[in-house]
Amino acid sequence: MKALLISKHQKEQSLLKPLLDVGIELSVWHDFDTDQLGTFSGTITRTLSPIDAAIAKARAGRASTPGFDWYIGSEGSFFSDPTVPFITRHHELLVALPSQHEIPVVTEVSQLISWAIDQEVSSEEAFLQLIDGDLSEGKEHAFLSLPGAPPQERIEVASGREALVKAYQQLSRNGELPIQVMSDLRAHRSKNRRQLIEQAAQALAAKLATQCPNCGQKGFGIKRLLPGLPCAWCLNPTGAVRAQFWSCPFCNYQEEKSDSGSGPFADPGMCGICNP
Ligand SMILES: [Zn+2]
Ligand SMILES: [Zn+2]
After folding, report:
1. Which one of the ligands is nearest to 216 CA?
2. Is the same domain home to 69 and 81?
3. Ligand of minimum distance to the alpha carbon of 231
4. CA of 158 to the centre of ligand 1 (A)
5. Ligand 1 centroid to residue 219 C-alpha, Å
6. Which of 23-32, 85-94, 154-163, 192-201 has the lowest mean pLDDT?
7. Does 201 lie in the same domain as 92?
């Protein structure tokens, strides 16, 4: 089987191997300007939801280059976690659109992150502290932008410490303080981000290799995990995973499979009654 990835920022690094492991050869279409759907730096505002943006990329690839079995679009997003205040959630989404079907196979993964910076600074000392901490984690780049400025007037710097410091000094001479400093989260600049994309790619590859027992199409796989594993002491349901919910996006066939990794009972530490 052959798949086409629509990507501008070298995401294929994270997808090639997981897909090849299940016999899918990946090509990349770089010509589509995915930034027209919105950018991380905010220079172009995003209007589509992440899933619609990913599907739009896959559709554009299919319209331009027929002959592939799957068209893969991706979209990452970062937002404040609604359940954990002041923590950022990093979410990666991959969709695989078949050549002759409008319904995509979708995988999503997410993680809470502490490594991304998005902070206002108004002194050079605070600025240096922030970017040196960021650079020490092996990242080479960061964005600078002017809070409240229209997107097209924000400033983007992406060439290491020297350029960042120079840009800061320029802005501060112009009286543009405070300045907003953000990590560069584009896939080709962020190792942390690529690792999560690879996880999503493994989940997608597993689905694209699995036939639906009902309609026979490939794309069958885990849609979500179901909580409710009984507590080992009181047998009441806990938040621990009890089963996997599998579904087929094409015919909606569904199946619940027990999650063998978790054993028959949950640790009482997970129980709201034994360990409130
Ligand atoms: Zn099916
Ligand atoms: Zn209990």
Report:
1. 1
2. yes
3. 2
4. 46
5. 8
6. 154-163
7. yes
At CA 40, angle to CA 78 and CA 2, rounded to 5? 85
Answer positive or negative: Cα dihedral of 51, 117, 171, 167: negative
Contact in structure between 266 and 237 (CB atoms under 8 Å): no
Tokens of 13: 């690094």
Q: What pLDDT is stored for residue 70 in this prediction?
A: 98
* Residues 6+ positions from 213 with CB-CB distance below 8 Å: 220, 253, 255
Query: What's the pTM?
Result: 0.78
Both 161 and 242 in one domain: the answer is no
**Among 16-30, 137-151, 170-184, 233-247, the least confident range:** 137-151
Residue 118 confidence (pLDDT) above 70: yes
Report CA(143)–ligand 1 centroid distance (Å).
Answer: 45
Number of domains the chain is built from: 3
Close Cβ partners of 232 (under 8 Å, ≥ 6 residues apart): 265, 266, 267, 268
* Residues 146-190 pLDDT 10s: 655 555 556 665 557 788 888 888 888 888 788 877 777 777 777
Helix pair angle (160-173, 124-136), 10° resolution: 160
Domain ranges, residue 92: 2-114+190-209
CA of 237 to the centre of ligand 2 (A): 8
Task: Give the distance (Å) from ligand 2 centre to CA of residue 85.
Answer: 28
